[in-house]
Design goal:
- This protein is elongated.
- It is 32% helix and 17% strand.
- Helix 5 runs parallel beside helix 9.
- The chain has a 6-stranded parallel sheet, with helices on both faces.
- It has 2 domains: 151 residues, Rossmann fold (3-Layer(aba) Sandwich), CATH 3.40.50.1220; 82 residues, SIR2/SIRT2 'Small Domain'.
- The chain starts with a helix and ends with a helix.
- It is α/β, with parallel strands linked by helices and 247 residues long.
- It binds adenosine-5-diphosphoribose.
- Adenosine-5-diphosphoribose binds next to loops.
Length: 247
């Protein structure tokens, strides 16, 4: 990671102070022990087909298999802790450089790191809701039920419950239109840890005059970015904090 690139990113953030928003993906959470989806070799989708096992169709057609994979893949995430990348974005928000974080992640680590404005465009792991009566429960309760039953049910009406995450085939939540509005108010999007391959979230990287990308692998938006840094999110964003005297 060249110091000039870190300096360029710090200068871009300073020049767009208060008019920048971060857009994060699974790559910012790998340093918290959560595998991402598409990294060569380690990405989850290298070994699990999400359309087959973790889509809306899978939830309705094969609920037992859905919940088995869901618990295996996302259960460990509930215990994860934020890393230097999450903490750096929280500091950039507190110091007024960014207005908040748009995240494709469902792990809640931005909030745990202290970020105040977080747009969870793919939902979150905190709760499930009953598909019959709408009652909401903590995800921990649904996962505990799975130890005794093949699929979790609503304790109120006995209906089936589903996670409050956006599955392949779901409509986008209100948080996505809020994220679009946040980008429209911005002049810089700072992408951290996303392959930018899943729409419509990836379209947010193409809407502002300025774009910065921190990602180990190339992305489809690299060609229009002011700055592209291929280092690790934690190290890179920590170096940016030092450059801005926020460390
Ligand atoms: N630092 C920087 N970049 C990293 C790091 C790291 N420590 N670890 C991984 N990366 C990069 C990878 O190189 C990869 O390009 O992060 C990117 C993660 O990309 P994906 O695995 O595709 O994750 P994401 O972009 O968030 O996927 C979007 O796809 O399956 C759906 O709903 C799921 O929200 C997810 C969406």
């Amino acid at each position: 990671m060249a110091d000039t690139d870190v300096r360029s990113l710090a200068e871009l953030l300073a020049a767009n102070k208060g008019h920048a928003v971060a857009l994060t993906g699974a790559g910012i959470s790998t340093e918290s022990g959560i595998p991402d989806f598409r990294s060569p070799g380690t990405g989850l989708w290298n070994r699990i087909d999400p359309m087959e096992y973790l889509s809306v169709d899978a939830l309705y057609a094969r609920p037992e298999t859905f919940w088995q994979y869901f618990a295996e893949v996302f259960g460990p995430t509930l215990a994860a802790q934020p890393n230097a990348g999450h903490l750096a974005l929280a500091k950039l928000e507190a110091a007024g450089f960014i207005t908040g974080v748009i995240t494709q992640n469902i792990d809640g680590l931005h909030q745990k790191a202290g970020s105040r404005t977080v747009y969870e465009v793919h939902g979150h792991l905190r709760t499930v809701h009953c598909q019959s009566c709408g009652r909401t429960y903590p995800m921990s309760e649904a996962l505990a039920q799975l130890k005794k039953e093949p699929i979790p049910h609503c304790s109120e009406c006995g209906g089936r419950v589903r996670p409050d995450v956006v599955l392949f085939g779901d409509m986008m939540p209100a948080a996505f239109s809020q994220a679009v509005a946040a980008v429209e108010r911005s002049s810089l999007v700072l992408v951290v840890g996303s392959s930018l391959t899943v729409s419509p979230a990836n379209s947010l990287a193409f809407q502002t005059p300025h774009l910065a990308i921190v990602n180990r692998e190339p992305t489809p938006a690299d060609g229009r970015a002011d700055v592209v840094l291929s280092g690790g999110a934690g190290d890179t964003l920590s170096a940016v904090l030092r450059e801005l005297n926020l460390a």
